[in-house]
Amino acid sequence: MGIYTRTGDKGMTGLIGARVSKDHLRVEAYGTTDELNSFIGKAMSELPEELFGDLLEDLEEIQHELFDCGGDLANVTDKRENKLRPSSIQWLEKRIDELSEEAPELERFILPGGTDPAATLHIARTVARRAERQVVRLMNAGEQVPETSLQYINRLSDYLFAAARIANFRLGRPDVEYARSAKVFRNTKRKQQKGETD
């Protein structure tokens, strides 16, 4: 199979159901999910399997789901069935809760960085935020966007934040707090230990 097709040599590309300019908002949106997927792959290459078997399984599943999300965003046909399911969002929320429970308490904003995999996961997090902004821009332009795509990308950025903190924690590198940050996070662990509820 040939890699190049020459069909995009004049600045157009194919969606599922249409051809558009390569700088179309929809192409920017699903193209950024591809960029995000690549950074997740880089993070996976930096995570030692003996310490991060669970994260590696998570991230491989996320890579598949980002392909699903990109396909859903690229589909402009009237009869389309979204590949990305609400159950994927629920699974991300469950994993965020589990990872947040393992990590040290967080009160203030932290600087992105630390160990190599944590730094890469933080980059992936910011790319996820950019993808989210582009999906919103697409919606605001009157384009049809699957609700699950926006919700998934929004939740994924939270997962990547939690995963970056776990990468530092398990590798013995404390997160660095932003020096001028006020206390912006609630100490849910401390409240649970005291039996307090909101």
Would you kindly provide a written description of the structure presented here, covering whatever features stand out?
This protein is mainly α and 198 residues long. It has a single domain (19-75, 84-194), classed as Hypothetical Protein Ta1238, Chain: A, CATH 1.20.1200. 61% of the residues lie in helices and 3% in strands. It has helices at 25-46, 49-74, 86-102, 116-140, 147-170, 188-194, and strands at residues 12-14, 19-21. A two-stranded antiparallel ribbon has the order 1-2. Helix 1 packs antiparallel against helix 2 (49-74). The chain is globular and about 50 Å long. The N and C termini lie far apart (58 Å).
Secondary structure topology:
Layout: E1 12-14, E2 19-21, H1 25-46, H2 49-74, H3 86-102, H4 116-140, H5 147-170, H6 188-194
Antiparallel strand pairs: 1-2
Could you state the CATH homologous superfamily? Cobalamin adenosyltransferase-like
Domain unit count: 1
| Contiguous uncertain segments of 5+ residues | 190-198
Q: Identify the strand order in the major beta sheet.
A: 1-2
Instruction: Could you tell me the CATH topology label.
Output: Hypothetical Protein Ta1238, Chain: A
Please write the string of helix (H) and strand (E) elements.
Answer: EEHHHHHH
CATH architecture: Up-down Bundle
